[in-house]
Amino acid sequence: MTTTDLALTELLTLSDSGQWHRAACRGDPNHEAWFPYPSQDFDYARRICAGCPLLAGCTEYAAQTGQSGVWGGREYDRGRVIRE
């Protein structure tokens, strides 16, 4: 199973933070928006992240755990920011 096969909420539960239930993206049905192709924009995900109370923690989590996809309004590839 790849990260694109998992729901975003399934990825969030892998964290040890007890705060993920407050994430603005929690329950979002638009899974593809969180794992865009390089040619796709990620404005939808960025807008949701902008109002999230966990923005800083999300970016930290993505960098520390080597995540790919949109986390905290930035796009990551194996824990490195590739687009902001």
Give a description of the structure:
- The protein is α+β, with helices and mostly antiparallel strands.
- It has one domain.
- It is 29% helix and 13% strand.
- It is built from three helices and three strands; from the N terminus they run H-H-H-E-E-E.
- A three-stranded antiparallel β-sheet has the order 1-2-3.
- A hairpin with a 2-residue loop joins strand 2 (74-77) and strand 3 (80-83).
- The protein is globular and about 30 Å long.
Question: Would you summarize the structure shown here?
Answer:
It is found in: Cytoplasm. The chain is an alpha+beta fold. It contains 3 helices and 3 strands; from the N terminus they run αααβββ.
Indicate the low-confidence ranges by residue numbers: 1-6
Q: Number of helical segments? A: 3
By secondary-structure content and strand pairing, the structural class works out as alpha+beta
- Helical residue percent band: 25-40%
Proportion of β residues? 5-15%
- What is the number of beta strands? 3
* First-to-last CA distance: 27 Å
User: How many domains is the backbone divided into?
Assistant: 1
* Main beta sheet: 3 strands, antiparallel
From N to C, what is the helix and strand string? HHHEEE
* Widest β-sheet, arrangement of strands: 1-2-3
Query: What is the arithmetic mean of pLDDT?
Result: 83
Shape: globular
Rg from Cα: 11 Å
